[in-house]
Design brief:
- The protein has 157 residues and is of the alpha+beta class.
- It folds into two domains: 7-95, Alpha-Beta Complex (Homing Intron 3 (I-Ppo) Encoded Endonuclease, Chain A), CATH 3.90.75.20; 107-149, no CATH class.
- The protein has six helices and six strands; from the N terminus they run H-E-E-E-E-H-E-E-H-H-H-H.
- It has helices at 7-13, 47-56, 86-95, 117-125, 130-137, 141-149; strands spanning 15-16, 24-25, 36-40, 43-46, 65-68, 81-84.
- The strands form three sheets. Strands 1-2 form a two-stranded antiparallel sheet. Strands 3-4 form a two-stranded antiparallel ribbon.
- Helix 5 (130-137) packs across helix 6.
- The longest helix is centred in the first third of the chain and has 10 residues, at 47-56.
Length: 157
């Protein structure tokens, strides 16, 4: 007979607690890097928001953020979390030097970058098929095509 676990039991099964440090979420991770927890019935919640709920109760407003003092998106330690508005969350990011300037997320600084600027320059100088070059750099043929045609990495010579 399978034991039916409660939501808190299922939640805490997915957390690696390490003293007073960050409690790392070991379950599913969403696109933005935050832990994702299924409440069932197709409903999901960020794991740090649910941890806040378990520790302190429901959030007072809809547009209140649960922010991290530790800046670790996988952390669910309630002692590392605090409530704030979007404006307060942005101020926190600026004060910690985490807000990147517009355009700084391009090229090799982009979150999905697989190539460096030097590799892109090398790709443009190489002769061979897209497949040969793609295999050499571990990227897709379409990535090579877009680099060579200037659709991607257009800002580098």
């Amino acid at each position: 007979m399978t034991k039916n676990l409660s939501i808190p039991e299922r939640f805490w099964e997915k957390v690696e607690i390490q003293g007073s440090g960050c409690w790392e979420w070991r379950g599913a991770i969403g696109k933005r890097g935050y832990g994702n927890f299924s409440l069932g019935g197709g409903k999901f919640i960020n794991s740090h928001r649910l941890s806040w709920r378990f520790a302190y109760g429901y959030l007072p407003k809809r547009n209140i953020f649960v922010c991290h003092r530790c800046d670790n998106r996988k952390c669910v330690n309630p002692n590392h979390l605090f409530l704030g508005t979007a404006k307060e969350n942005t101020r926190d990011m600026i004060s910690k030097g985490r807000l990147r300037k517009r355009g700084s997320m391009r090229g090799e600084n982009g979150p999905n970058a697989k190539l460096t600027l030097e590799e892109v320059r090398e790709i443009r100088a190489l002769r061979g098929t897209h497949r040969e070059i793609a295999d050499r750099f571990g990227v897709s043929r379409s990535a090579i095509s877009m680099i060579r045609s200037g659709l991607n990495w257009a800002n580098c010579a």
